[in-house]
């Protein structure tokens, strides 16, 4: 049975210690193929960014094809974009920055929202609006210690780093208190329709690294 939008609490619980595959490939055909390979390899959370051509339609298509997977939208910047992807089945929304009106839309619809934050102030403001999981972005700039230091005074805020997560440092992120992690180009870099098997190899390597990190 597929998760319903009202299963916000269930999605939050399932996200704990998970890997979110961020698909940021402009071409819809390749984005679809990469996503399907990532799903077959065992990744359960997929973030399809709005930089993909016809991203809302692709979200709807893959939600229907893989009802057991949790598929959301990323790079959401406006209230209108949030409303469109929710209408097309997005189960969670990720923003690159702190946009209060998007959080408000998600609260109204019962959708998990992970706003991008880069400071303690942004993290706390997002929490006050109902987001107890935020996206630490850009992760390669902030570093894993950002999460550890943030959770010192504010242990009630959970962070998912985005950008800069690799096989070499994934353990550091979880050790520092990351709620989950997201991976992007390191999953599909130099992948074409002719070498999709690379996705399977990389995804399984990340899954193994994550399982040894938590």
Write down the oligomeric state: single chain
Mean of residue pLDDT values: 95
Shape: globular
Number of helices: 11
**Alpha-carbon Rg, integer:** 16 Å
Beta strand % = 15-25%
Classify the secondary structure makeup into a structural class.
Answer: alpha/beta
- What string gives the helices and strands in order? HEHEHEHEHEEHEHHEHEHH
Number of strands: 9
Helix content: 40-55%
Write a concise synopsis of the structure shown.
With about 210 residues, the chain is an alpha/beta fold. About 45% of the residues lie in helices and about 15% in strands.
List the helices and strands and how they pair.
Elements: H1 8-15, E1 19-23, H2 28-40, E2 45-49, H3 55-65, E3 70-74, H4 79-87, E4 92-94, H5 100-109, E5 112-114, E6 116-117, H6 120-128, E7 133-136, H7 139-142, H8 144-151, E8 158-161, H9 170-175, E9 181-183, H10 185-188, H11 197-211
Parallel strand pairs: 1-2, 1-9, 2-3, 4-5, 6-7, 7-8
Describe the structure.
- This protein has 214 residues and is of the alpha/beta class.
- 45% of the residues lie in helices and 16% in strands.
- The protein has 11 helices and 9 strands.
- The protein has helices spanning 8-15, 28-40, 55-65, 79-87, 100-109, 120-128, 139-142, 144-151, 170-175, 185-188, 197-211; strands at 19-23, 45-49, 70-74, 92-94, 112-114, 116-117, 133-136, 158-161, 181-183.
- The strands form 3 sheets. A 4-stranded parallel beta sheet has the order 3-2-1-9. Strands 6-7-8 form a 3-stranded parallel beta sheet, covered by helices on one side.
- Strand 2, helix 3 (55-65) and strand 3 form a beta-alpha-beta unit.
- The longest helix has 15 residues, at 197-211.
- The chain is globular.
- The relative contact order is 0.15.
- Mean pLDDT is 95; it is low at 1-6.
């Amino acid at each position: 049975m597929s998760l319903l939008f009202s299963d916000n609490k269930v999605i939050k619980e399932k996200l704990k210690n998970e890997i979110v595959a961020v698909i940021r490939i402009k071409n819809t055909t390749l984005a679809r193929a990469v996503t399907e390979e990532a799903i077959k390899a065992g990744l359960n959370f997929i973030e399809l960014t709005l930089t993909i051509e016809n991203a809302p339609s692709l979200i709807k298509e893959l939600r229907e094809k893989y009802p057991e997977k949790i598929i959301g939208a990323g790079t959401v910047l406006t209230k209108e974009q949030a409303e469109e992807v929710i209408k097309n089945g997005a189960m969670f929304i990720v923003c690159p920055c702190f946009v209060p009106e998007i959080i408000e839309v998600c609260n109204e619809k019962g959708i998990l929202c992970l706003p991008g934050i880069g400071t303690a102030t942004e993290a706390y403001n997002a929490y006050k609006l109902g987001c107890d999981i935020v996206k630490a972005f850009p992760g390669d700039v902030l570093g894993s210690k950002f999460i550890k230091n943030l959770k010192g005074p504010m242990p009630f805020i959970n962070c998912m780093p985005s950008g800069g997560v690799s096989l070499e440092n994934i353990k550091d992120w979880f050790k520092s208190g990351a709620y989950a992690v997201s991976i992007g180009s390191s999953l599909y870099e130099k992948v074409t329709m002719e070498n999709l098997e690379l996705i399977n190899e990389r995804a399984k390597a990340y899954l193994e690294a994550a399982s040894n990190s938590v």
